[in-house]
């Protein structure tokens, strides 16, 4: 079986395409998807199939499905694989023309190249293909190719959006400083200044949309109690939008929920530095303050108890000690 499209053409095994799994989906769903595929390809489900179909099912399961699941289900291996995806994403963003040559004309991936709502269109396309991916074993290769093309386009579009946001963020300050604060009404300078302000507003709205998409995905993972994936989403967007108070505040909340008080404190403080009125960051700080106070009380009680116990022991130094496990085995006078 030869895979020849999408990320595979970029010399990368697309484990997500093999399992029919969205790059934006919850990793906790990998096992559920894998078990469903394994049942479809199991000999008991293919009793009436031809010998050729059984051999094909066995090859798919052993050479493609099982290895893909092994990578995506193990935390360390999955993390390393995501790093490779980041590298490929950078290559795709730098050479988008290369991707265009790899796509099948009229495919779902080609449509995704021009889609306005990338996230929604990508999720819908993956779901539609994955639903029938293993229903016809002779067409599995074709569907995997289509999924891999979709994944490649999704990576490129998402990476390009991040790069554009970073560049526009850097340009906004310089453009703003270059706009004349006072020019004659109706003059060419006034018209150009208005156009520049409109461009800046458009850039700001684009950045806001990107931040909102990350926040929405983080909230979805948070609703599933998948705090680690939600944290990854927000850390990623903060890399390109370090001055987003909502992102820092939400990240602080997630760190607090996952028991990482120090990181929660850092990001809550950063959020309030950027926006002193941020309610979520204020709530996190308040909870951290309560936890610190409780910990201090516990520590004080423990110290008092220790001091009291030490005093009792000091007052009984002249009395012979009784028993104890080791003294019972080895101590005492011989009679």
TrEMBL record:
Compositional bias ranges of the Low complexity kind: 173-188
InterPro entries: DnaJ_domain (IPR001623), J_dom_sf (IPR036869), TPR-like_helical_dom_sf (IPR011990), TPR_rpt (IPR019734)
Domain J: 14-85
Chain positions covered by the region annotation Disordered: 165-190, 299-335
Pfam families: DnaJ, TPR_8
Bias kind Gly residues: ranges: 308-317, 325-335
Top-level taxon in the UniProt lineage: Bacteria
Transmembrane segments: none
Protein name: Molecular chaperone DnaJ
Organism this protein belongs to: Phormidesmis priestleyi
């Amino acid at each position: 079986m030869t895979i020849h499209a999408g990320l595979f053409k970029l010399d990368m095994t697309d484990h997500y395409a093999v399992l029919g799994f969205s790059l934006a989906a919850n990793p906790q769903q990998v096992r559920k998807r894998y078990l469903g595929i394994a049942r479809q390809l199991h000999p008991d489900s293919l009793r009436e199939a031809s010998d050729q179909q059984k051999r094909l099912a066995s090859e798919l399961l052993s050479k493609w499905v099982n290895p893909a699941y092994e990578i995506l289900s193990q935390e360390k291996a999955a993390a390393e694989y995501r790093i490779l995806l980041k590298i490929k994403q950078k290559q795709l963003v730098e050479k988008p023309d290369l991707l265009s040559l790899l796509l099948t004309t009229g495919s779902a991936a080609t449509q995704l190249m021009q889609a306005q709502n990338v996230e929604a269109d990508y999720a819908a396309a993956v779901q539609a293909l994955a639903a029938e991916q293993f229903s016809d074993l002779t067409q599995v290769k074709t569907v995997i190719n289509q999924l891999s093309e979709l994944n490649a386009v999704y990576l490129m579009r998402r990476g390009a959006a991040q790069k554009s946001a970073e560049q526009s963020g850097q340009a906004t300050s310089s453009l703003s400083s270059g706009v004349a604060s006072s020019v004659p009404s109706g003059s060419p300078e006034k018209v150009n200044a208005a156009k520049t302000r409109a461009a800046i507003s458009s850039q700001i709205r684009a950045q806001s949309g990107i931040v909102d998409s990350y926040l929405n995905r983080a909230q979805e993972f948070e609703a599933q109690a998948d705090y680690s994936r939600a944290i990854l989403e927000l850390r990623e967007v903060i890399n390109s939008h370090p001055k987003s108070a909502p992102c820092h505040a939400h990240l602080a909340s997630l760190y607090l929920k996952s028991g990482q008080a120090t990181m929660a404190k850092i990001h809550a403080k950063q959020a309030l530095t950027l926006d002193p009125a941020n309610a979520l960051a204020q709530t996190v700080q308040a909870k951290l303050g309560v936890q610190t106070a409780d910990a201090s009380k516990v520590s004080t009680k423990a110290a008092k108890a220790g001091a009291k116990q030490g005093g009792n022991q000091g007052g009984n130094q002249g009395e012979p000690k009784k028993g104890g496990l080791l003294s019972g085995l080895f101590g005492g006078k011989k009679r």
